Each structure stands twice: as structure tokens, then as C-alpha cells.
Amino acid sequence: MTELHLWLRHEVRETERRTPIVPQDARRLVAAGVTLTVERSPQRIFPVEEYEAAGCRAVEPGSWVSAPPEAVIVGLKELPDEPAELVHRHIFFGHAYKRQPGAAALLQRFLAGGGALLDLEYLVDDSGRRLAAFGFWAGYLGAALAVLQQRGRLAAPLTPTSKEELDDTLRPAAGDEDFTALVVGALGRSGRGARVAFAAAGVEPSCWDLAETRDLDRRALMDHDVMVNAVLATSPVPPFLRAEDLDDPDRRLRTLCDVTCDVGSPLNVLPVYDRTTDWTHPVRRLHEKPPLDLIAIDNLPSLLPRESSTDFSAALLPQLLDPGLLDYGAGGPWARCLDTFRRACRELGLAERG
Predict the structure, then answer these.
(1) CA dihedral 199, 293, 97, 41 (to 10 degrees)
(2) Which of 30, 141, 205, 255 could be stapled to 226 by a disulfide with Cβ–Cβ 3.0 to 4.6 Å?
(3) What pLDDT, on the 0 to 100 scale, is given for residue 101?
């Protein structure tokens, strides 16, 4: 069997401080015989020296483009626009299988170069449950920011912190007004994280999941002051909020946090906005009368980079040690990832090279 060579790339997004492989798990990979090359990164929460101490080789940022063809490139968020042809297998969150903007162009780059996208969102077990996810931390941070916005204490630009510090900020202060909150998708990873943040803030939210969204009561939804959406739809469902709902003079909802940020997808359950917010401008006013503020940041867990990376890496480690990453014929999670990539290309009418 060919030796596995993993190449941990630098993230091009300046606010992305997470990593899918932390130094302690890098050491375990090296001990198992994996070659691990790590690109230097000025913003990664763990310094490259910790990876070197674990037995990894450090290289310059962006040098994955000239990595050996058998290397598997590992990252989290979007790739740079070049090269036009991607020859490697890439492990990251591609956000390209639900007809999101830019999806076809990304997949065509893989087909042009003969590479493949092994999308972390679709790394699942036999029952379809994701094997490595940031969902808990996305939900926790989404609810935390919503609480701070509702209480008038959300300061911009956002900066990375620790859970301990954020919990301290969330505790109710003298003069804070009570408010009602709703978590939609409360039973999933993100929903559980949101509930933990609300608990730290002294708020007991309403919790909705499949039963409540199957027969949606929009009036009840809009009767909450704060809503956190933690539902990532995989099939079309009626939207939770519509444009006409924003005009409703009786709408009580004032702060909306969309953890899933599925903007641009036909499966978006909140088609009331057309672009995400960011660390510099975390809140955007969607409507004036009555007011509605939106928080829709697509890398929330990077605000807690150490905690979220450590959890994610621990879950990903056994998958990186799975022989199926080298031999797709053996079946298993990585073979399913590859099948999903090929099916998505076919559905978009993209032709494979040659």
C-alpha cells in the first residue's frame, strides 16, 4: 500500500484561524507512519514550531500547488482562485453540492486537473451521520453573538477569544432586559451548542426541531425576540421566513442569527438575505420598521479557534488513519465522499477529463 502523505495547507481567508489537524494529533499521525507536511501560516492558532516538534516538515504557504501528485491536501475553507486545474485530492468544506454560487466552477477545476474533492460535510458513517463537524461551536457562537447583539453589547470587529472569556461576557448584567429566544434545529450539534450558550446567558430558549418545522407556525416563530437557525436542509422545505414576513408590523423578532449560512442555495430556509456578514461587520440591518438585525457569519467557530480545532481534529484523526483514504475500493466514508463528488459533477452536467 502507498504511504499516506497529508499536506496541511495555509488558509487564504485572513479570519480563518482554525486547523483540521492540531499538533497533538499530527504527532499521532506521524507515529502511525503518515508523512505530514505543514504549510506555515501567520494566523493559524497553533504555531508551526509545534508541528515541527511533532515530526512534520514545514513549508511555505501555498506550496501545495507543487506538492507530489499523490499527496492529499487538507484544509477547511475555500481554495484560492488559482490554479485553474486541481490535480490533487483535497479534503475541505467545498460548499459545492447544493448549487451554491461558484459550485460548478470549483468542481470543473477538479475535473480539469484530474483531482477530487473529498468534502468534509459529506464524510459520514453508514447511517449518514457526519463523522467530524464544527456544528456545536457554530451553534454556540451564533447564539452567543445573538445574545450580545440583543443586549447591545456586541462590539465590532470581532476577535478570537476563549470559551471561558465568552461565557463571562454572556452572563447577565444589571439592567439587562429579559427577552425570548428560539433555536430551530435544537436537537442537532449546532442546536445543542446554541442551547449551551443561551444557558450561559441565563436564557431558556424555545426549542424546535423536525416536529415543529414540519408544520411551521410562522406567527409563533416571529413572536420570539431572538432566533437562531441551526437547520441545514438537505431537501426543499418551506422557508422559515419570507420577505413579506419582514414587513409584518406585529413581528416581534428583532435579532436573527443564521448559523447555517446556506445563502444562494435553493435549499436555503431563510431566503430573506443575499449575502453573509463578517467579522468586521457582524450585523446587518435587514429591515427598519419593525427592525430586524441579521448575523450570518460562515466561519463562526474560528472565533474559538483552539477549542473548535481540538474537537474537530480529534474526530477527524481516526478517519485520516482509515486505510480507505488510500484504497477507495475498500468502501467506507472516503469512498462515499468520492462517490458524492462524482455524482455532484454529473448532476451539474460536468464532463470528466479525457
Answers:
(1) -70
(2) 255
(3) 86
